[in-house]
Amino acid sequence: MDFQLTIHAALDRLRDGSLSSRQLTESLLQRIADTDDTIKAYLRVDGEGALRSAEEADRRRSQGEKAPLLGIPLALKDVICTKGIETTCASRFLQGFTPPYDATVVARLKESGAVILGKTNTDEFAMGSSTENSSYFTTHNPWDVTRVPGGSSGGSAAAVAADECLGALGTDTGGSIRQPAAFCGVAGLKPTYGRVSRYGLVAFASSLDQAGPLGKDVTDCALLLQTMAGYDPCDSTSVDLPVPDYYGALQPRLDGVRIGVPREYFGNGMQPEVEAAVRDALQVCRELGAELVDLSMPYTEYALPAYYIISSAEASANLARFDGVRYGARYDDAMREAADIIETTSKTRQQGFGDEVKRRIMLGTYTLSAGYYDAYYLKAQQVRTLIKRDFDQAFSRCDALIVPTTPTTAFRIGERVHDMLQMYLGDIFTLGLNLAGTCGISILCGFADGLPIGMQVLGGAFEEATILNVAYAYEQATAWHLQTPEL
Amino acid sequence: MAYETIIGMEVHAQVITASKMFCGCSADTSAPPNTHVCPVCLAMPGSLPVINEAAVRATIRTGLALHCEIPPHTKFDRKNYSYPDLAKGYQISQYDMPLCVDGWIDIPDGEDTKRLRIRRVHLEEDTGRLIHEGAHSLIDDNRSGMPLMEIVTEADLRSADDAWFYLTKLRAILRYLGVSSGNMEEGAMRCEANISIRPEGASTFGTRVEIKNMNSFRAVRQAIAYEIERQRALLECGEQVHQVTVGWDENRRRTVFQRSKEYANDYRYFPDPDLPPLQLERVMVEDMRRQLPELPDAKAERLAREYGVKGDDVALLVQERQIADFFEATVKAAQGLEPQVVANWMVGELFRLLSEQEVADGEIPITPQQLADLLMLLHKGAINAAAAKEVLAELFHRGGSAEEIIRRRGLRQISSESDLAAVVAQVLAENPQPVADYLQGKGAALGFLMGQVMKATRGQANPQVARQLLMESLEGRRHDTEE
Ligand SMILES: [Zn+2]
Questions:
Q1: Which of A247, A354, A443, B13 is the most buried (most CB within 10 A)?
Q2: Among this protein's residues, is A152 annotated catalytic?
Q3: What is the pTM of this model?
Q4: B245 and B111, same structural domain?
Q5: B 65-94 residues with CB below 8 A of A?
Q6: Residue B360 pLDDT > 80, yes or no?
Q7: Residues B401, B441: one domain?
């Protein structure tokens, strides 16, 4: 079935002419029609636009063009702005908002010839770990539809796992690519902060957000990152460094590679099968030539509170623009009842935002307030420096770290919605990396009761080639990534 | 009781740049509403700011001109507050690490000067403009994201006059640098004053009142004077001054209550994560310092020294760089003429013409060569001063050359004694009574007779020569009668 292809396999067939982008796109649209009623990965599918782009790609290829992703159908998380396609961040507030511009990553994908299938579900404004905070619906895990796909890029991860796209883009602020990749058994990479332009990603926490690829395997992540990465003059935090050839650097061996194993990421009441699977993976790496290094990252436990303070503070300002004045929903009720603009704005926001978003805005506003700033925001920034130092020290001794992505496999829908702390604690293995600002990839490393287990390969700043290579070598030596859910 | 007034000033000045502070939109605000806008200055989701280097340079140059230090590290912060003209819900500004700190500016203080400390100069973005129409409020976002400098003094001013001198001086500096038009009426320069008064000799400060809405230099002077009196009256009745913000009501000539400090915003400043901190290289700053133009103080000192121009005139000449340049060019073109004569004509007649005419600040419709030619003709006695004023007015309004205007309008001065002697004889013959008055010691009659001579020559008589001839003839008659 064409929709089951990886990106690299599809490119081979598009190049040898045995498949057209139109056929491939049609096959995926059919797949979406067949399965997405169950999975609910997509908030909207742009079938017409996708077919048009596919035909255009076929025409370009027939004229000898060789753009790297020419004709490859992809899905985009709905916090990424797409010119002419509604972009809602799964919020009622942005219902009907169609950006007049493409995010830089989208422009780059389009230039590379990619076909955009549609926009995938997410927690509202990317705030959450299950897609249960979407204002529209919850996405279901393709491996067990009673479970969450993870979040916030749960729609993208589920779409990849369910073969509803060849690859997808997500965003990762505290694990929002890696955690759903782990829950859905796909590969998902968070690039180094500054590696990929943030222009056009609806900001959640500006100092933490990065867009990254989700794919069926490591090779596909390398191909997607190749196109996404690079300096953007429109994003002052993007970094002007050359982009290496990620795909070309993939190697099946790990000779001489030093892999760190930080003890803080193991034990501590995590699901035993998860720990066992990651420890098995470490042995595989050793057999491939890697040297394992035990080490300690003592500030790991402080990542969670520091993350929630910093990300909420930034979010409280980033979301202030949603006042209904220039775009987005402004409620008629509010217009009628409101005495003045302040009341109109507050009613608009009251009705436009979901509970989790309001919670974070309030938390962020509080921690930035006069008299609390030093105790919360400033302290959290200091902790962030210490966590960064933990990572710096680890990467001075090792080329990469291998740790579990999540303490457990995917939880049931509804299981944690009333226990926010439990929900937040599920992210403890991913948050630190965002605070440190370096890169990581989550890949499949086993199953527990039919549910995927993810492990992360973490790397230093701009060491994407290194982590892709470690993940690739492991993947080549195992067959986990070849398994697919039955739908 | 005698009170001392304490004033601190905050001035916002629009920075002249080609594009806005954080996006590529044109910084021309005269365009139709909402035509110079983009995702960034409309705060569309996902848009990101990029710092305008030209605005940073303009602010640093201002700081250098105000003798500020330029710290090597600076950053931008988010100032959070909610208002419909503020698209992002926060303003990108600078909180604790401004571009420029600890400077000073000298202002006149009687015969002396007084030094005001400048606390800081920082860079931020402007908001959109609200337009209220009936029950609706409209927003023009052309102004949204325009670069804006904020210049803050220490509380070193002591009177409304100080404020006026400060603003005049500051505006001159901004205009010399070319960083802002300083036009208050158009809102390119906006100022707020914090005012308190305290019994003379007291060591603690009184309660501060903030005045906004002062849209002209005159309004600043009037508003501050009004507020000082208001506070004094309150204290003298044993009442309290409350910490409030007031606005100047131009029509009613009084300050009106705007809001109380109890509703003061907590702006929740924090570093803008979208903009990495800036490192300013010493070399660049020193380079900019070297390239500063000659500023008003230095220019005034030099004009006085090089040209011997009087202090009051110098102060007026250096207020605009173009005026000072015009003065120097005219002096150069008018070889042999006393520079003070050029100064007199500029400060007197030319300024009067400029103030009558609606011309942009610093713009002069005549050339230094035109003025120099005119003054040289006056100097040589070809025309008299009254004619020179007429010629200047025509040059100013219609252009041309002084020579040609004098010829066309027949203004050339009659200096020949033989020509004027006949006129004098005729005037004396036709006015026996004033002549008699004069001879009886009524000196004022001479003025009347001079007037008659000027009238008879249609103003062309050389006044010195005519007067001399009149006196000689009259004195001759006195001798005749006495003999
Ligand atoms: Zn703009």
A1: A443
A2: yes
A3: 0.91
A4: yes
A5: 78, 80, 82-84, 87-90
A6: no
A7: no
